Each structure stands twice: as C-alpha cells, then as structure tokens.
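To the wet lab folks,

You asked to see what we're planning to order before we commit. Fair enough. Below is the target structure as tokens, and below that is the sequence we designed to fit it. If anything looks off to you, flag it before the synthesis order goes out.
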C-alpha cells in the first residue's frame, strides 16, 4: 500500500574520496556493485518496496551520470501518477551558485519541494549504503512512540563502535545521548544515517540552524544534539539484517564478497524484496569449454574463457583464456586479457588489463585497478 504520509529524501552528494579512482568522475552512489547494480539502487528500491511514492535525490559532486540514472523513475516503479523520483541539485543563490554545506543544509535548501508534497513525516536516507529495509516498520516505531524523530541503529562490535555515531538509550530505546565517534563508547548502537522526522518540527529547527554561523549544518553534529538539548522525544529503531557503508575500496570489496556467502542476509535473488536496477539488455553469460569457475557470482553478458575463483564478475566483463582471477571484483565492462593473473583486486568499469599482467593486493589491502594496464606497465 502506498505511504502518502511520508516523503523520502536521499542524500547522494558526497565526494566518496576514499573510493579513490572509482569516484574521480562518478558520484559515489553511482558506483557499480554486485554485478549489475549501483549503490543508489538500494535506498531507491527500499523506498519503492515500502510504498513511498515521492523520493527526492539530492546530488552534488560528479552528478551528471547519477542525475541521468535516477531520473528514469520507471526502473523502480515510481513513475505512476502522483509519484516519482526528483533530482535536486544545489540551488542558485543571490550570491552565486552554492553547494550543500552539510546534510541538514541540503534539506533546508529543498524545504519548498517538501512543502509542496505536504508530508507528515520526512525520511532522510544516505545514498551510499548497501542494505534492505522496510521503512514502514521504521515508521511504525516512530508513530508508536509518538516520537519527534526516530533513528535506525544497528549493533556493531563494541571495539569498533568508536568509528560510528553512537546512540545511548534507556531500556525502551529512547535516546538519551548521541556521541559522534566516541573514544570510549558507552553502547554499541550505531546510527545507520536513516532518520524519520516529523516535518513541521524539523522545518522549524532547520530554519533556525540556517541562521547560525557557527553551525556545520549537519544532522549528526547540529540538529540531533539540538533536539536532545531541547528535550524532544528521540527513539532508536534497532535493525536486524545486512547493512554496510561501502565508503572505502576494502569495504566495497568486502560487501561484494558477501554475495558469495550463502548465509548472508542480503539475498539479491530474493524476489519478495527486489532490488531494482537498469536492464542493460545484455545477452546471457558465456562460460567457455576450457574455463574453470569456482564459487563465483557472474552476471549476464559476461564471457568467461579463463579461470575464475571466489570472485564477482559484473555485466559484460570478459576474461580471456589463460587468465586467472581470484578473490576479486570485476566491475561492468572490464576486460581481462590472456595470461593475466589477478588476486585481491577491484577492476574499475571498462578498464582493460593485460596481456600477461600479474597484480595482487591482500585481503587487508585490496588493489584498485582504475586505468588500462598492458604488459604490467601503465599506459
């Protein structure tokens, strides 16, 4: 059933510099993942599956490809009457073209868009996480608690909690304290960067924050602490399931490798909660008669003539005879020539490698190959 009470805003404007060469010309949410998908497919599909009809996607850096991609609402079934995906870049200001100064400022600059749709609640999402979530359940928690804001949280190992924004709650999950990357965390409830706010209250706080020169105009640093200081009701919503921030080369590789684990909770083949994406129209995969394939995730359009082991092979990838690919991720259109040996690498989209190239990273330091390499020398 469509959820007309809640509008979603996806923050998709980050630079993604820790993904190195993958985001030189591509916005982080547009980076390829899992064979045929892009990272932005996950929050968009979650919105579609949750019955959210209006979704704003706030873009900024290297946004040309991302803007074109998300504007085709039919991919996620959001092209029916009174629904759609709306691309929202920073606005032109009287003093010139401005950028979004922070996550809260990005929403502030689009208050008129939100008001036009008259929602009771606004769902704020990040555009660069891999997960499946029913946002209706989050809304149920929010309404049951009569909360002013509700924040999705996930339990992380306590030894890793200092890497996250941590929510300290009472036994009913009412948030008593928010700590941004605490040196000595008091709990392991990490913020997932997924928020529901009552719109009228949030709008008031955003407008107040806009005028504060000392503010960083960020939800975690400014808006949420102000809510707590003013005694508003904030609740945590514990999430049980797969969630990963793929903000680094290693974490992107790890999340792709999780697809090879039959026990993982992501289950991209599960038709009950589909992740929608672009249909490239590529033909079926081809596995050559001399190819050796072990524990691999291979998408359509791939042509495998060599050896592939424990790797994710994306759409339209070519692996020539004599090539060996192990523990690696080959993004769409990558071409691996004959007698090439790759292990613990990510090969960027449409990059050509070989012939005779031997390159290896380690499990702790994945090697990114983001430009053509021939004969073990960079062109």
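Sequence we intend to order:
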């Amino acid at each position: 059933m469509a959820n007309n009470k809640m509008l979603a805003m996806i923050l998709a404007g980050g630079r993604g510099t820790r993904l190195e060469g993958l985001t030189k010309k591509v916005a982080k949410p547009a980076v390829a993942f899992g064979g045929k998908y892009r990272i932005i497919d996950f929050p968009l599909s979650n919105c579609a599956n949750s019955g959210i009809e209006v979704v704003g996607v706030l873009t900024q850096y290297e946004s040309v490809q991302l803007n074109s991609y998300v504007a085709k609402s039919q991919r996620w079934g959001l092209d029916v009457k009174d629904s759609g995906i709306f691309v929202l870049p920073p606005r032109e200001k009287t003093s010139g073209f401005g950028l979004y100064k922070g996550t809260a400022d990005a929403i502030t600059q689009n208050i008129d868009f939100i008001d036009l749709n008259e929602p009771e609640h606004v769902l704020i999402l990040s555009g660069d996480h891999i997960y499946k979530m029913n946002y209706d359940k989050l809304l149920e928690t929010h309404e049951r608690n009569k909360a002013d804001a509700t924040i999705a949280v996930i339990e992380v190992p306590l030894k890793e909690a200092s890497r996250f924004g941590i929510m300290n709650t009472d036994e009913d999950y009412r948030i008593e304290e928010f700590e941004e990357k605490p040196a000595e965390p008091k709990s392991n409830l990490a913020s997932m960067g997924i928020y529901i706010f009552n719109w009228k209250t949030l709008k008031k706080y955003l407008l107040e924050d806009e005028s504060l020169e000392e503010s960083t105009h960020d939800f975690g640093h400014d808006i949420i602490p102000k809510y707590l200081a003013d005694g508003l009701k904030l609740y945590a919503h514990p999430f049980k399931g797969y969630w990963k921030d793929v903000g680094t080369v290693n974490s992107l590789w790890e999340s792709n490798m999780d697809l090879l684990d039959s026990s993982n909770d992501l289950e991209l083949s599960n038709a009950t909660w589909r992740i929608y994406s672009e249909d490239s129209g590529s033909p079926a995969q081809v596995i050559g008669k001399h190819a050796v394939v072990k524990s691999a995730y291979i998408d359509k359009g791939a042509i495998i003539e060599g050896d592939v082991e424990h790797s994710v092979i994306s759409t339209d990838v070519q692996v020539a005879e004599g090539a060996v690919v192990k523990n690696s991720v080959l993004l769409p259109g990558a071409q691996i020539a004959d007698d090439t040996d790759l292990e613990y690498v990510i090969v960027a989209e449409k990059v050509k490698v070989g012939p005779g190239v031997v390159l290896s990273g380690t499990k702790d330091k994945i090697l990114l190959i983001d430009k053509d390499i021939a004969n073990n020398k960079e062109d």
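Structural context that might help your review: The chain has two domains: 6-260, 286-369. The chain has eight helices and 32 strands.

Thanks,
Computational group
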